[in-house]
Design a protein that fits this description.
heterodimer; A: Beta-Lactamase; Beta-Lactamase; Heat Shock Protein 90; 6-stranded mixed β-sheet; 5-stranded antiparallel β-sheet; 14 helices; about 50% helix; B: about 130 residues; alpha/beta; Rossmann fold
Chain lengths: ~625, ~130
């Protein structure tokens, strides 16, 4: 196939795209409109829902953390209150004399620990700070506690729960001491509780891998071991003044502050990050609560990623769905809009082609009217000239005084007049033929047979010009309904032109093919030549009447116009591709139509008339 | 076989004059009129074998003349010779019984051939 420029007549989809510039803009506008109307509301609703849900989840989790920290605080406080009450009960229900007896004190110790072995030891201490009696694993009878901080505190306050300290035994523990004044005697009942009990009280269940709960005293000393950083009795790195009020929630995530989250807490959070309680690298949530007595701070901490893991997963799924929907809408919008614009473009092209065909038909009709009139007006004078010529010839032939040589020269000149009249006659016949607008009867036509007949006619002429004609016919082509003689004339024109296109070339070839066109339900015949081709400026005019590139006298310029007209009358299309210097390819499409051929006797007679009138166009 | 008696009906006077000369010189018995009315009148007075009839003429056109001729003298053979060939006209002519329909300009030899064929048909029919 030739790759050159193309001119099309009759093909509805093969017209140049005159709207190409506006369609991308139209496509962009449609897609933009579709996105604005569908994607934007979806995104807005989706994101608002997401933010509300995130806020709601955040509040719920903050509340959960508050409940957790409050629960742990109450557990620790209850434990300490119960143990303090135990000691108070013993102190106020037993006399000093009774308790000073080691066996009695041991019995009391045994009863106190019956519920859970909370106490490590139990001692009765006099005002001098020395044990009056002691039950426990250590040898502390001679120890003097008068200068210890807890001794002074219990003497001052009556009841004292100490912070965790090492003491003489070098083991982290804390004490509960109760001052008792009874029967004129004043003494202190003191019990020791190992720190492990505190740790066991602090519930870590449900806080996952990153969660931890710990206690620190008001000086920032760990009362229980933190899970990740630091150990018991160490000084916590964070400033204790950060934890204001009775309880609160802090967050290292300023974007998602839990509720309640105060501006002050925000500053605190910054400090906590600075001192390492909160890690800026991972989003964390911290809940805290101060114990009433002793002044310990209970801290519950967990990473956001774990706290909100399930919620985040749900949110992620929702966001993926949301964005998938947006993407789907975009794809569908682009696709459907593209299809719509494509259809619009096709319709526009069809309308454009229809307009062009109407214009062409109108042009041909006008030219046809003119041509018919001109032909009529010329034919009569031509008839007179021809007969006058014959009269002169008769006169010359019968004149006795003229020499034979003179008569021959005269006859030759008259013969030249005859030839020119015939030439004029040929032109007028073509004009009349071109202008004819009648509904001719259609018959079933075998395209292959029609083309084969024409090839047989023109093969000799082609051969004499060094042009070889080859054919490639598809077998079993469906018959088309049309005008057999007219169709043959189309191929006479096309193949004749193809032969003429080799003028000035020593040799060349013409390839003729036929094939079925399933898409358009018809047949296609192509005539491709290796001739001189058609220039771009001429290509658009090849089907115009009276347009010819042949030398004067060799073509009327009506052959392709008539061919075009014939093919159009048969409902087909004719197109041409050409590259100057390389050759041309004409393609004829003819639809297969249903219906019986009009083959009545009258039709046959009409056909004969048609043949009488038909003069092959040059 | 005798030459056919011809009637030329055409408003193109020089053409008719030339044909008259040429055909007479070739032995035909030729009469000529320049309109349809005259043609219908002359066939009342004189017998003809073949009529060479123009189509576009002032007054009655060729088809009308043909219709009336064939109505009265169906054995008369008519060859329509016109400068304005039209398939519709040709079909009408054939429907009305014209022997042939041909376009100007025509070579004398071709015309003679058509005249001969028409005359042979008339002879065969009668």
């Amino acid at each position: 196939m030739l790759g050159g420029i193309e001119a099309v007549k009759g093909g509805p989809l093969q017209v140049p795209d005159v709207h190409s510039r506006s369609y991308p803009k139209l496509l962009r506008r449609f897609v933009f409109g579709a996105v604005i109307c569908s994607v934007l509301p979806l995104l807005v609703v989706g994101w608002i829902s997401y933010l509300y849900y995130a806020q709601f989840s955040m509040s719920r989790m903050a509340a959960y953390f508050q409940r957790t920290v409050e629960y742990n605080r109450k557990t620790v406080e209850s434990f300490l209150d119960e143990r303090t009450s135990d000691l108070k009960l013993v102190a106020f229900t037993h006399s000093l004399d009774y308790l000073k007896d080691a066996s009695n004190l041991g019995q009391v110790f045994h009863i106190l620990n019956r519920e859970g072995s909370f106490f490590t030891d139990l001692g009765v201490i006099g005002l001098e700070g020395k044990h009056l009696a002691y039950v426990g694993p250590y040898d502390l009878m001679d120890k003097d506690y008068s200068q210890t901080f807890w001794f002074k505190e219990v003497m001052a306050k009556g009841v004292y729960v100490s912070d965790v300290f090492m003491g003489y035994r070098e083991i982290p523990h804390f004490i509960i001491a109760v001052l008792c004044r009874k029967g004129g005697a004043t003494w202190i009942l003191r019990a020791t509780i190992y720190q492990e009990f505190l740790s066991s009280l602090v519930e870590t269940a449900g806080l996952g891998q990153t969660g931890e709960v710990f206690l620190v005293n008001k000086d920032g000393i760990y009362q229980t071991s933190p899970k990740f950083k630091g150990k018991i009795m160490d000084k916590a790195a964070f400033p204790m003044e950060s934890f204001t009020g009775g309880s609160g929630i802090l967050s290292a995530d300023p974007i998602h502050p839990p509720d309640p989250f105060t501006p002050e807490s925000g500053i605190v959070s910054a400090n906590l990050i600075k001192y390492g309680l909160l890690q800026s690298s991972s989003q964390q949530i911290v809940a805290y609560s101060w114990l009433r007595h002793p002044q310990w701070l209970l801290v519950v901490k967990q990473d956001f990623s774990e706290v909100f893991g399930d919620i985040n997963r749900v949110n992620t799924v929702v966001l993926i769905l949301l964005h998938s929907c947006v993407l789907a809408i975009l794809i569908v919008s682009v696709f459907t809009t593209g299809q719509m614009v494509k259809t619009l473009k096709r319709r526009d092209n069809e309308a454009e082609e229809l307009n062009r065909q109407l214009m062409q038909a109108s042009k041909l009709a006008s030219i046809g009217e003119l041509a018919a009139g001109v032909a009529h007006e010329i034919n009569n004078p031509l008839a007179v000239i021809l007969t006058e010529n014959q009269v002169i010839l008769d006169l010359v032939e019968t004149e006795q005084g003229l020499s034979t040589d003179f008569k021959e020269q005269f006859a030759a000149s008259l013969g030249q007049i005859d030839a020119q009249v015939e030439r004029c006659s040929h032109i007028t016949q073509n004009l009349l033929r071109f202008s004819r607008r009648i509904a001719l009867p259609m018959r079933f036509v075998d395209l292959n047979a029609a083309v084969k007949d024409v090839v047989g006619l023109l093969e000799k002429r082609a051969g004499s010009r060094g042009v070889q004609i080859s054919v490639d016919f598809q077998e079993d082509l469906p018959s088309i309904r049309g005008y057999d003689f007219e169709l043959e004339q189309v191929f006479v024109n096309l193949i004749g032109n193809a032969i003429d296109a080799h003028e000035g070339k020593p040799y060349g070839s013409i390839r003729i093919t036929t094939r079925r066109d399933g898409k358009r339900q018809g047949v296609i015949a192509t005539v491709a030549d290796t001739g001189s081709g058609i220039s771009a400026e001429n290509l658009a005019r090849v089907f115009d009447p009276f347009f010819t590139t042949k030398p004067v006298g060799q073509g009327t310029g009506l052959g392709l116009s008539i061919s075009y007209s014939i093919i159009r009358q048969m409902g087909g299309a004719i197109s041409v591709r050409s590259e100057e210097g390389k050759g041309s390819e004409f393609e004829v499409f003819l639809p297969c139509r249903d219906g019986d051929p009009d083959d009545s006797a009258q039709t046959r007679r009409k056909e004969s008339v048609k043949r009488l009138l038909a003069v092959p166009a040059k | 076989m005798r030459k056919p008696r011809l009637l030329l009906v055409d408003d193109e006077v020089p053409f008719v004059a030339n044909l008259l000369k040429l055909l007479s010189r070739r032995g035909y018995e030729v009469s000529a009129v320049y309109d349809g009315e005259s043609a219908l009148r002359i066939v009342e007075e004189k017998e003809f074998d073949v009529v060479i009839l123009d189509q576009n003429m002032p007054g009655k056109d060729g088809i009308t003349v043909l219709r009336e001729l064939k109505k009265k003298w169906p054995q008369l053979e008519v060859v329509i010779l016109t400068g304005y060939s039209s398939v519709d006209m040709a079909l009408d002519g054939f429907e009305l019984g014209a022997y042939d329909y041909t376009t100007k300009p025509i070579k004398l030899g071709d015309l003679e051939e058509k005249i001969g064929q028409a005359f042979r048909r008339k002879t065969l029919r009668t």
